[in-house]
Amino acid sequence: SNFGLFGSAERNLVFAINDFDEVHPGPWEWDLKRLAASIALVATSLGGNRRDAEASVRRAVESYRQRIARYAEMAFLETWYDCIDERAILDVIPPSMRRGAEETMDKARAKGRLQALDRLTEEVGGEHRIIEDIPLIVREEHLDSGVPIKEALEAMLRTYIASLPEDRRRLFSRYRIVDAARKTVGVGSVGTGCWVILLQGLDAEDPLFLQVKQASQSVLAPFTHTPLHFKNQGQRVVVGQRLTQGSPDIFLGWGEAGGTDFYVRQLADMKGGVKFNDGDRDALISLPEYCGLCGWALALAHAKSGDPAMIAGYCGKSSALDDAFGRFAIAYMEQTELDHAALVEAGRTGRIPVGQPE
Length: 358
Known about the structure:
This protein is an alpha+beta fold. 49% of the residues lie in helices and 15% in strands. The protein contains twelve helices and ten strands. A six-stranded antiparallel β-sheet has the order 5-6-7-8-10-9, with helices on both faces. It has a two-stranded antiparallel sheet with strand order 1-2. The radius of gyration is 22 Å and the shape is globular. The mean pLDDT is 89.
């Protein structure tokens, strides 16, 4: 799920990495190991066996290895401008997957600010207001510190504007805040602050939805030897995304309020991806080719942010890397299954408290 479609600044659909909360310079193989382990777990959740899991992992690593070798021979600017667009996706996937891919792209294109306006808001007193969906979306008047929400967000947005290029500042200055609400975020970010802001431009049919998300130090930071000198952790996220993704959101930026760092991006802007449901045998059949696409996207991100020639030299031209990562992923998957079984047993026997959320 850390790969998917998004709309570039030119309004083209691009396939790339899409989650940057933990972005940080580090060993390139960490990303490839994480991808390999995730693929093995997905394969078994779809009903596959060890052979299915290893085949999908090998396809991803093979794709990564071949693509990074290609980028090692490309001019720097050629690599920087490269992207995995709609045509590239349809060219590399088998004919049996094209209809599903086109449907996914159509859904992503339909996810824009006007659709979000219909889905996320209702009209109250002549203006749009964000619909509460407790506990996922909650309207609050004050922060825990007692500062009014609108006042705090306006202060944060003033620092955010400074992170934008001059042309984007001009564009953003034409919008005004209409409403805001707290948003519950994914498992990895539970407990951090996240807000949805509705802004309005020319009229009520000219909305802009921004997501303001708290940024803390990357969990990778204590384990790497590359210190970062950013004063704002939101800047770390934004710089990492701009460096590796290539065609980022035009409103991507960072800010600070009350000593807390944030980064800002558009919400619901031509985003899409593949969903995997447990036991979906049809998805298992197409999984290797999808994993090959993910391997390509990771290679492109590493080529833009690292040294593709060095990485390609380490990967080599044989299938030795594919074999090694296949074995690693299976071992990691088996350990994950053992860890989960131990957790379930600890809950069953009362070694750890297990309860329902209030």
